[in-house]
Amino acid sequence: MSASKADQHNYIASHAQNQRRINSELSKAYKLRHAKCPKPTTRPSGGRGNRSLFVKVFMMQNDKNGDGVVDKSEFRGSDDRFDQMDKNSNGKLEAEELTDLHKRRMQDPKSMHQRRKSCDRPGPPPDFRR
């Protein structure tokens, strides 16, 4: 193997090892942060999309205190959007309430991966707050 091929092989192996380490650390952090949360249920999705993974990612991005629900102060979107998603009007987004959002996303003909690849993705809504 030439020096450049050996370097390339070492880089690829190192990158793969780093990715495994990062995924492992993220998984541990998620489990620790959400240890007391109710476990989301998985249901068949016709081969596209994984509801429990969708819920995990949504909770990881929004549930700042790790209690398994997202209240209005933790939600990254607008108050109006929160109110639309809060079906039972208890002031908290729970895993079951994310079903409609997940269904709408799955009905979109383009996956998020396809959107990223084609740079065809909408920007944040005008009332988005970080």
Plain-language structure description:
51% of the residues lie in helices and 3% in strands. The protein is mainly α. The protein folds into two domains: 1-33; 38-130, Recoverin, domain 1 (Orthogonal Bundle), CATH 1.10.238. Strands 1-2 form a two-stranded antiparallel sheet. The longest helix is centred in the first third of the chain and has 31 residues, at 3-33. It is extended. Mean pLDDT is 75; it is low at 42-48.
Determine the structural class based on helices, strands and strand pairing: mainly alpha
Main sheet?
2 strands, antiparallel
CATH architecture descriptor of the largest domain? Orthogonal Bundle
Which parts are unreliable, with pLDDT below 50 for 5 consecutive residues or more? 42-48
SSE sequence, one letter per element: HHEHEHH
Q: What does the radius of gyration come to? A: 19 Å
Strand order of the largest sheet: 1-2
Which CATH class of the largest domain applies here? Mainly Alpha
SSE arrangement:
Elements: H1 3-33, H2 51-62, E1 70-71, H3 79-85, E2 92-93, H4 99-107, H5 112-118
